[in-house]
Specification:
Layout: E1 3-7, E2 10-13, E3 25-30, E4 33-38, E5 44-47, H1 51-74
Antiparallel strand pairs: 1-2, 2-3, 3-4, 4-5
Length: 84
């Protein structure tokens, strides 16, 4: 699973074989915690990511939501900047 972005100890990864992975989503890893986020509404679908990390992930994803959707639908990986 390629790394799409890194920021504040959070690693964002995304699969690029959608037929096997359902709705558009990405994975966020923060230490030993994980979360799976729906790209379309930025809700955490599953995981145990702490609230602070969830807020950071949602802030980042809101900024790059359209690019994440483009990557999901096109299967073209692109590294994205983190939060500044």
């Amino acid at each position: 699973m390629p790394v799409v972005a890194r920021f504040y100890g959070v690693i964002i990864k995304m699969y690029f074989s959608q037929s096997e992975h359902g709705i558009p989503h990405f994975h966020a890893i923060y230490g030993e915690y994980n979360g799976v986020f729906n790209i379309q509404n930025l809700e955490m679908l599953e995981g145990d990511l702490p609230l602070r990390a969830q807020r950071l992930v949602r802030e980042w994803a809101a900024e790059y939501q359209q690019e994440l959707l483009r990557m999901w639908h096109s299967n073209e990986f692109r590294r994205l900047p983190g939060l500044e």
